[in-house]
UniProtKB/TrEMBL annotation:
Species assigned in the record: Cognatiyoonia sediminum
CDD domains xrefs: lytB_ispH (cd13944)
InterPro entries according to UniProt: LytB/IspH
Source lineage: Bacteria, Pseudomonadati, Pseudomonadota, Alphaproteobacteria, Rhodobacterales
Active site positions, chain numbering: E131
Residues holding [4Fe-4S] cluster: C17, C101, C200
Descriptive protein name: 4-hydroxy-3-methylbut-2-enyl diphosphate reductase
Length: 316
């Protein structure tokens, strides 16, 4: 039976970013240095395949520090943690390693600096996301107010409209955030913004690559986890950029083939915590069903690398 022809547009950049790469490396190096088990507070990155792989090597994933014994190392996830968490670990004299992405740490430092200057913070982010919880937890209760939408800006109650600054979650939609920032600046003309955009380079690059492929595609597959903020944003960006159908899948087995009936072109990308092995698995699934021509659409080249903490580079 003759296979139907399909053009597959592969977005670049896609998949792992430098912060995710570093976080995974931190867990692997901790296991090498201290042996199993090593405890990890929250999923190190939002990807089940990655987390399961590290669990098989001896990592134990927990949600709270209270679940960790005093005598084993604990690692804090790439999303960042409230200031109270490392303080509690230090009080218990635990060995702990902070795998917070350096670009998230930059936002933490920014928030603290503005607070030290007497400014109340507004954070643009998603309620309940670990990065938002971690950033808001850098300052005392009430010092960081959360807005998720333009509508939230109209109702947020601030202490002094003349003494405000804002930060953003690093994994948001660039386009959505622009609108929220505009609304903040219109309501609070004196609000202070970050020196450099908080949305990280990897989030921005992946969204730009999706915008480049979307008009060419009948459908877009985003490889990523349902709890991954940057992956979900890629689905939204693809739909807005001219592709009628965008689907988030964790693995090739999640693909809804019936929804793709009759397609002639498909775009494939992946969130920043999705490994290349899962992207290749999805590509292979399309190659099995279609006579596939692959075109790479590259919109940026990434060569960022973050060092792991010194404690892991020193001998045991």
């Amino acid at each position: 039976m003759t296979k139907q022809s399909l053009t597959l547009y592969l977005a670049a950049p896609r998949g792992f970013c430098a912060g995710v790469d570093r976080a995974i490396k931190i867990v692997e190096m901790a296991l090498e240095k201290w042996g199993a088990p090593v405890y990890v507070r929250h999923e190190i990155v939002h990807n089940k395949f990655v987390v399961d792989g590290l669990r098989d090597k001896g990592a134990v994933f927990v949600e709270e520090l209270l679940e960790c014994p005093d005598d084993r190392p604990v690692i804090f996830s790439a999303h960042g943690v409230p200031k109270a968490v490392p303080a509690a670990a230090a009080k218990r004299e635990m060995i702990y390693v902070d795998a917070t992405c350096p670009l998230v740490s930059k936002v933490h430092i920014e928030a603290q600096r503005h607070s030290d200057n007497g400014l109340q913070m507004i954070m643009i982010g998603h309620e309940g996301h670990p990065e938002t919880i971690g950033t808001m937890g850098q300052l005392p209760d009430g010092e960081v107010l959360l807005v998720e939408t333009v509508e939230d800006v109209a109702t947020v109650e601030v202490r002094d409209p003349e003494r405000l600054a804002f930060v953003t979650q690093t994994t948001l939609s660039v386009d959505d955030t622009i609108d929220i920032v505009k609304a903040l600046q219109e309501r609070f003309p004196g609000i202070v913004g970050p020196h450099k955009e908080d949305i990280c380079y990897a989030t921005t690059n992946r969204q730009e690559a999706v915008k480049a492929i979307a008009p060419k595609c009948d459908a877009i597959m985003v490889v990523g986890a349902p709890n991954s903020s940057n992956s979900k944003r890629l689905v939204e960006v693809g739909a807005r950029a001219g592709c009628d159908y965008a689907q988030l899948v964790q693995r090739a087995t999640d693909i809804d083939w019936r929804a793709l009936n009759g397609i002639k072109s498909i775009g494939i990308t992946a969130g920043a915590s999705a490994p290349e092995v899962l992207i290749n698995e999805v590509i292979d699934a399309f190659k099995d069903r279609y006579d596939t021509t692959v075109e790479i659409v590259e919109t940026a080249v990434e060569n960022v690398e973050f060092k792991v903490p010194r404690v892991l580079r020193e001998p045991a």
